[in-house]
TrEMBL record, chains A, B:
Any Pfam family matching the protein: Sacchrp_dh_NADP
Signal peptide: none
Species, as recorded: Geobacter pickeringii
InterPro entries cross-referenced by the UniProt entry: NAD(P)-bd_dom_sf, Sacchrp_dh-like_C, Sacchrp_dh_NADP-bd
SUPFAM superfamilies assigned: NAD(P)-binding Rossmann-fold domains (SSF51735)
Saccharopine dehydrogenase NADP binding domain: residues covered: 4-133
Domain Saccharopine dehydrogenase-like C-terminal, residue spans: 137-382
Full protein name: Saccharopine dehydrogenase
Length: 397, 397
């Protein structure tokens, strides 16, 4: 029976609050905080006011410290912006509270995705006897756990992985991103990197395209190779992996919009002088696009996110595909958010359960593949994201 | 020998200054004024400092009046923004100076193109013994003159006109507009109107597409029907015309960019709240796009703008196509601007010559088709924009 402080009241925050509230056996008290308290209050109202809310600027360590000292939670679940990971980790260290997030830190002015900043907290968390669990969303998060499961149960040696993230749903809008457009566009416009033979290989953003035949009636969709942060920790902690690639589906329409917005400079993350003010184009674009939260009731179809792991079992080549299917409309009915937010928020809650029950607990900074995957998946399935495991053959991507 | 005041130091202003300076027999003194005096000074430097420059806010009547009183020009050539036509006309009335522009007034906050605002000045100019010549660019301007020429010389009765504007050139940029992007995008995203049987017929913006086989080796290009202001005055002053349509070429790439920018709201002309400031998206977009002035040295190819007039001659159906071909690179070599600015700026100078020499002069507010077209074209050809007249048959558009 623990008190939890959730920071961030976007689509994912809403899911986290709803799912924590379903498990009052673990989360006896819940406080939701955000820069805009009204967003927290709106979510609290969905739950009949059974959670507390607070205002906090997550860029500001003293404000965070004051809030944590006042609330005295056992764990802080950070579902704010990735820019804010370090300030929240600093505040947890200062107040002696465990930490969990769903996306790695990135600086605001360069689209540079790497764990170095957060891994640098290793000694400080260890010395303080505190735990930080990094990337407990779906990808990163569950994809790390699926890879660890392949390594533990299905293969003696995982040699290659393809992480494949399909959103086969549609929101019916001409253009909208399914989560924070600023984060989404930064990610997909960054150069691609994949892991091959002990090093990162850089190629053009979305320059490598394949078709993949998805299960569960989804069928073939175009997938594009891109960098995604879980590869960095997975290849570090499962060093038998000599090739790791991440793939995501994008519709032709999405790519057309992205190309044009890049051409005209609207995806720029640097400041532009305009009418005597400094404006970051991508932030202005975000202000014009539909609020991802507004897409929930409009989105139909499924997501399919999973890992194809290939390697050796008893000396022979073997492949296993571990994935989850999630339905946008079912998610919306349950928690008022579509599957993109749901698949990120539910694993955060399961990660929190792992930590608060002591199932996964050790001082230091940890990635998801470093703990027993089966213990996590035993909780994740009943919480709404069951895995499917298929052994078979898939074409090389 | 007259003094002229040119207001507006964009691409067209630069052409106007260069061409006036070629005709010192008419334009003995030239002053160029703009909100940003540095832009005027840069153009003056191209001409070895042989013109004067000044700073003026063309939205501000008292400032305009003070400048005109100080300069005492015989004529004001307005090549500023269309929003500023009325303030400059007011200042001309107050100071007793003739007026010429190249584009009709439109209010800043609605894309509404009509002559009503400027025609309302008719009595005041007449009573003051002053002349205002409206729309002395290429289209409006030369296209009005071509139509008047067809009515005077080639047909007894002009019944239908198709004004066709092709830019068969390329600047090699992913996306850029050839003149002020704010004005350009407002124009092409407005609903289409064409004249048919005594009334305006409204259809979707760029919804009607045809292919037209252009002369002079340009060949077939896609053209799109849109509203263009010269139709309003032409059908008023040449009332035998029962159908008038305006067509412009757009590349698939341009249309793709336009579609996306509309989808995301970047072409909006209303104010959006952003970071505590009010921002008009299309103005922010303009700040991001390449300055049309920078495209001059990059643009290759030709423009072809003209009018197909169809009607009766000696009781029989007859068609005549009157057009001009202009080469981007040749324009740039001559005046440092590409053909889009050149074809607008040269007719403004010819209109000024018509007025200052008394060839076309009468008190009141006038459109181009109301004067003798041959007198205008006799000057326009030697100034750089000769017309080609072809009698033949063209498919109905």
């Amino acid at each position: 029976m623990s008190k939890v402080l959730i920071i961030g009241a976007g689509g994912v925050g809403q899911v986290v609050v709803h799912k924590c509230a379903q498990r009052r056996d673990i989360f006896s008290e819940i406080t939701l905080a955000s820069r805009t308290k009204a967003k927290c209050d709106a979510i609290a109202a969905q739950l009949g006011g059974s959670i507390a809310t607070a205002q906090v600027d997550a860029d500001n360590v003293p404000e965070l410290v004051a809030l944590i000292k006042k609330e005295q939670p056992k764990l802080v679940i950070n579902v704010a912006l990735p820019y804010q990971d370090l300030t929240i980790m600093d505040a947890c260290l200062e107040t002696g509270v465990d930490y969990l997030d769903t996306a790695n830190y990135e600086p605001k002015d360069t689209a540079k995705f790497e764990y170095s900043w957060q891994w640098a907290y290793q000694e400080r968390f260890k010395d303080a006897g505190l735990m930080a669990l990094l990337g407990s969303g779906f990808d990163p998060g569950v994809t790390n756990v699926y890879t660890a499961l392949a390594a533990k149960k299905y293969l003696d040696e995982v040699q290659e992985i393809d992480i494949i993230d399909a959103n086969a749903g549609s929101h019916g809008q001409p253009f909208a991103t399914n989560f924070n457009p600023e984060i989404n566009i930064r990610e997909v416009t960054a150069p691609c990197r994949h892991w091959e033979n002990g090093q990162w290989v850089e190629t053009g953003a979305l320059a490598t395209k394949r078709s993949f035949d998805f299960p569960d009636g989804i069928g073939p969709m175009n997938i594009y190779r891109m960098y995604h942060e879980e590869m960095e920790s997975i290849v570090k902690h499962i060093p038998t992996i000599r090739k790791a690639q991440f793939w995501m589906t994008f519709s032709d329409n999405y790519l057309k919009h992205l190309e044009v917005l890049q051409n005209v400079g609207m995806t720029r993350i640097d400041e532009v002088e305009f009418q005597g003010q400094k404006i970051v184009p991508i932030q202005f674009l975000k202000a014009l696009l539909p609020d991802p939260g507004s897409l929930g009731p409009l989105t139909k179809g499924k997501t399919c996110i999973g890992v194809i792991a290939r390697g050796l079992k008893d000396g022979k080549r073997k492949q296993v595909y571990i994935y989850n299917i999630c339905d946008h409309e079912a998610c919306y009915r349950e928690v008022g958010s579509q599957a993109i937010s749901y698949t990120t928020g539910v694993p955060a809650v399961v990660g929190a359960i792992m930590m608060l029950t002591g199932t996964w607990h050790a001082p230091g900074v940890w990635n998801m593949e470093q703990f027993d995957p089966e213990l996590f998946l035993e909780v994740l399935g009943p919480m709404g994201l069951p895995e499917v495991v298929v052994e078979g053959e898939w074409p090389e991507l």
